[in-house]
Each structure stands twice: as structure tokens, then as C-alpha cells.
Amino acid sequence: MTNHLHALNRDNHLIHINDAQKGKEHSYTCPACGAPMIPKQGKKQAWHFAHKADKENCCAETYLYKVAKLRIKQCFEESSSFIIKPAQRVICNVEDCPVGRLKPCEWEKEGSPINLKENYDTCVIDAMSDKFHADLLIVSKSNENIPPILINISVSTTYCEPCAVTDYKKINLHISSEEDLLEIVGKATISETIKEPEQRNPYDNDNEEYEESELDEDISIPTIFYNFDDTPVFERPDEKHQAYKHSWWIKPNYGYQSDEPSVFYGSGRCLSSNISSIENSVFCIQARYKINRDFAFKILAQINIGIRYCPMCEFYEWNRCTENPPCPTYADKYEAQKCKFFKQKIDKTEEIPEYKVYINGKPR
């Protein structure tokens, strides 16, 4: 069982192990099960409270849940300021997306701090506001016209997507350990979890193994703020929040090239400079996702700039997997540009929904 850092004294006040005193005149009980506890303040182990008798049925999650409510209420009442930081929504302000996004990228950053003590003076444990229960209800007794803020605390290691069921401002606060709790009360601050941008490629089958393995990792349970100001700001993204860029291009000698297939993250970020080979290309496709050859050939045929390759021909398919020449009508060389029998095949390759085409270095 995890060491307990808090206990209740005779006056039912929550005490941290560093403030505990020994002696018959001092007694402590467990906030979860109510059983007697003793302070362990030796030199060999980290200081903690322990049950006098074995209490295998004392639930660690119940303990953390009850301690969190008491400790945050105590912090709110004793601190001159109590800060909350909702996440700030940010939208990319680059007008012409280099990788063809139809909708600007969005991400989050830490928002401006709000000092609750400027408008609120009371924190109540297990209270109701209208028909809604709050583990902690932040209210203003001096001004009843100020709507309350509801804080609900979760300590479970199993993630369940919470729902905002009220128009009131609400915080779903996740605490996974007493260390998390001590960080909150030490700074008198609750911050919303910042969502990281999704960079995986849902159109790339090569990443199936990568995605499945990632799902096996522990899920970090977020702290979520509801019904706070969601007005976005518009900014040019820094490198961390730029989309990954994949490229497929044709060189001036008509040789074609793409990102190395094993490189999932492509050839750079969306706003990074292209390599000289791409800058000097006669045709280029760039997207957030890996671009396969068949898709590139399909777009090349649609644009019709006079460049073609044998794999774009209907006859090429007949002999692709044999040792015979790829084309029964033009067996000497792979010279689709000169072939009088070339017949554009109907390509049913699934399209990438967002991409950007460049002709001679200029966007089309």
C-alpha cells in the first residue's frame, strides 16, 4: 500500500506527516476508513502515517479522494490567491497552408491565470448547486449573483470521458497521487491539461503496428475545464505545433523521389524550408501524410502537364509481376513519354483528402 502522508487529528483537521506530533495527547485517524493511525518519522524510511493494525480493506483511492477534497478546501481558505489556468485555444494564422489543410490547425497552450479569490470567498465540500453535485463548490457569499464553480475530483486509474452536464463553470480535476495533490496546494493552482496535437497518419496502413502499440501505453487522464471562455487566439505555430510534411516530387531529369518510407515523420515541418531537390522540382505534392506513388501518379495524370510514366499506363498492369518486359507493345525501354501505345489507366487509388501541388516550385 502507498504511504499515507495525511491523517485527521482529534479536532478532525487534516494534518501532513511533517506537522504530526507524537505522544499520548496526539492521536490520528485515517481519512478513508477512520481507523487509528500513527506517525512514522524515523530515519530509515520516508515519513508517513501507518494504520495501527493491518487495514487491507482500506481503499487507497478512497483515501486520496477524501484527502484531496479536504486539502484543496484548506488551501483555498488559507491562501491569499487561488489560481486556475484554463487551456487557451490557438488557431494557425498562416493563410496558405503549405500542406493543403482545408481547415487551419488548432492546438492549446496554457491560458491566462484567473485568481478565484478576487470574486469567490467560500469553498464547500460535497455541496449541491441546483441539481448538480460538486465535490468542491466555489461560491461567493458576498455576491450571490456570481455563478458558482463546480470542481469534481477523480482519482481512479481508469479513464472515463467526463461530460459537462451543467451550464456552470466546471472543473473535472484528476489527481493520481498525493504528490499531484501537494503540487496543486503548494502552488495554489489548478491547470487544465494541455492537449497535444495529433500527428499520426490515419491514411497510412504502414503505421498500423505503430498505432496499436501506442494504444497499449498508459493513458494520461486529463484535467478538463468546462464552460470557461473558449475564444481562440490566432498565431503562427512554433515548430512543436507545425504539422509534419511529406513530399513526393519529380526532378528536372524526370526521375521521381519521395520521403524515405521508413521515416514516419516525413521531411520536416510544414513551415520548414524544402531541400534543394524539392525547390527545383518540376512537380511536387506535399501533405501531412505519407504519399504513395500510385496516388502521386493519379494526381499527375489529372493535372496533365505532359509527364507520364509506364506504371501510369493500362498495359503496365498486365506484366507487373512477371519476368517479361512490363509492356507488350513497347518492349525496349521504360519510355512512356515517347510511347505511341500509352493508354492512361483508370486509377482507383484512395485519395488523401488534404494535399498541396506545386508546379515548378509554385503552388497550383
Content of β-strand: 25-35%
Oligomeric status: single chain
Radius of gyration: 31 Å
What are the segments in which pLDDT stays under 50 over at least 5 consecutive residues? 201-218, 261-265
- How does the overall form come out from the CA principal axes? elongated
**Helix segment tally:** 5
What's the number of structural domains? Answer: 3
What are the secondary-structure elements, in order, as H or E?
EEEEEHEEEEEEEEHEHEEEEEHEHEE
Key words describing this protein structure:
3 domains, 364 residues, 22 strands, single chain, six-stranded antiparallel beta sheet
Which helices and strands, and how do they pair?
Elements (H helix, E strand, L loop, with lengths): L5 E3 L5 E3 L11 E2 L6 E5 L7 E4 L8 H19 L4 E3 L1 E6 L13 E5 L3 E2 L6 E8 L2 E8 L9 E6 L14 E6 L3 H10 L1 E3 L16 H8 L8 E3 L6 E3 L8 E7 L5 E3 L9 E2 L6 H4 L3 E5 L5 H11 L52 E4 L2 E2 L1
Parallel strand pairs: 6-14, 7-16, 12-13
Antiparallel strand pairs: 1-2, 3-4, 4-5, 6-9, 7-8, 10-11, 11-12, 13-15, 17-18, 17-19, 17-20, 20-21, 21-22
Helix pairs in contact: 1-2
